[in-house]
């Protein structure tokens, strides 16, 4: 059994310690907002937070997350009220949507560490998140919008 705290809830899962965290989230806990893309830390679709830092859950062993705090897209806010989620919806950023939970989880770390990011801060922080639909410009604009919302007190 591996014990994990995910989105503030404790879980015990009966898996081998070398199981990727992504499999546990999706297949054992039904948290399917986190996506499987490349499976080799190249696309960012599987990004979640481990103790507040963005990690690729496809290459993070569940044993590394044992006893730690994991946050997935489902736990970013209770009601889609995180400034990034609000900005994403207002700007209609998604196309197919497949990459977007990973994009938002990476952007959340960026905004926490750089509340007023420049274009180059954004490009650097988001460079590991690939979007096959090419929504990069809309993502960048939405991050700027979210920074404004956050400044106005939009974090709930
Ligand atoms: S699925 Fe993990 S980085 Fe692509
Ligand atoms: S919105 Fe389709 S891959 Fe990014």
From TrEMBL:
InterPro entries recorded:
2Fe-2S-bd, 2Fe-2S-bd_dom_sf, 2Fe-2S_ferredoxin-like_sf, 2Fe-2S_ferredoxin-type, 2Fe2S_fd_BS, Beta-grasp_dom_sf, Diverse_Oxidoreductases
The 2Fe-2S ferredoxin-type domain extends over 1-76
GO-annotated molecular function = 2 iron, 2 sulfur cluster binding; metal ion binding; oxidoreductase activity
> Which CDD domains does the record associate with it?
fer2
For this UniProt record, give its keywords in alphabetical order, as a comma-separated list.
2Fe-2S, Iron, Iron-sulfur, Metal-binding, Oxidoreductase
Leader peptide range in chain numbering = none
- Any Pfam family matching the protein: Fer2_2
Supply the name of the protein.
Answer: (2Fe-2S)-binding protein
Query: Which organism encodes this protein?
Result: Flavihumibacter solisilvae
């Amino acid at each position: 059994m591996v014990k994990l705290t995910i989105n503030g809830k404790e879980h015990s899962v009966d898996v081998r310690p070398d199981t990727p965290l992504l499999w546990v989230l999706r297949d054992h806990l039904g948290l399917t907002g986190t996506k499987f893309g490349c499976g080799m830390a190249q696309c960012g679709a599987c990004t979640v937070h481990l103790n507040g830092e963005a990690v690729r859950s496809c290459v993070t062993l569940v044993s590394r997350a044992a006893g730690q705090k994991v946050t997935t897209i489902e736990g970013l806010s209770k009601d889609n009220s995180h400034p990034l989620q609000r900005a994403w919806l207002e700007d209609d950023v998604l196309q197919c949507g497949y990459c977007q939970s990973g994009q938002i989880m990476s952007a959340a770390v960026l905004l926490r560490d750089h509340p007023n990011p420049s274009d180059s801060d954004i490009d650097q922080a988001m460079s590991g998140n690939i979007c096959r639909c090419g929504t990069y410009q809309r993502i960048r604009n939405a991050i700027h919008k979210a920074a404004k919302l956050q400044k106005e007190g939009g974090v709930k």
